[in-house]
Specification:
The protein is an alpha/beta fold and 194 residues long. The chain contains five helices and six strands. Strands 2-1-3-4-5-6 form a six-stranded mixed beta sheet.
Length: 194
């Protein structure tokens, strides 16, 4: 069993990725298991750059293989915003609710549908090798909250081909279609054949 540290402090992401790596030869170790969730400044200008910054920082502390990701929401009418600022769209120390309210308010100026996509850039880093994968989930932003499963923008994101928001889907349903699932499933496959 190969241990991989998942460089995230987000327990929602952690649960999703641990599920993706179930029944493999990999055991996902969380930063909580290691007793320390350091604050890593994401100074990159893309999801891929931020994922690498996190992976390298955690590798340098623990000297174990690391997986990391950076993900966010890109809204067509907002030229890809909030993008890499998705987690702090409404300002530093904002809540998911703050972000959702701000996005709904900003989009009132535009006609529906509000086409958007979730993007996830995932990376594996072991000090020498870098393996990357990207996953996307297209859909649209709606103006009312629906569902309580999930986190972030899930309650206002309607995936293409679905009549339920991400927050109305079960974890199993979400893991079949999500941007993070797509990216980490691709990454897992690439790591397994190394």
């Amino acid at each position: 069993m190969t241990e991989l540290i998942f460089a995230t402090g987000n327990k929602g992401k952690l649960a999703e990725v641990q599920k993706i790596f179930e029944n493999t030869n990999f055991k996902i170790i969380s930063l909580y298991d290691l007793g320390d969730v350091p604050e890593i400044e994401e100074t990159g200008s893309t999801f891929a750059e931020n994922a690498l910054i996190k992976a390298e920082a955690i590798f340098n502390i623990h000297k174990m293989p690391v997986i990391a990701d950076d993900s966010g929401l890109a809204v067509e009418q907002l030229n890809g915003d909030p993008g890499i600022y998705s987690a702090r769209y409404a300002g530093e120390n904002c809540t998911y609710d703050d972000n959702n309210k701000k996005l709904i308010k900003v989009l009132r100026e535009y006609d529906t549908p509000h086409k958007a996509k979730f993007v996830c850039s995932a990376i594996y880093f072991d000090g020498a090798n870098k393996i990357t994968a990207v996953g996307e989930l297209p859909g649209e932003i709606i103006s009312e909250y629906r569902g309580t499963n999930g986190f972030g923008y899930d309650p206002i994101f309607l995936p293409d081909g679905f009549d339920k928001t991400l927050a109305e889907l079960t974890t199993e349903e979400k893991n079949k279609i999500s941007h993070r699932a797509k990216a980490f499933n691709k990454l897992r496959t690439q790591i397994e054949i190394r």
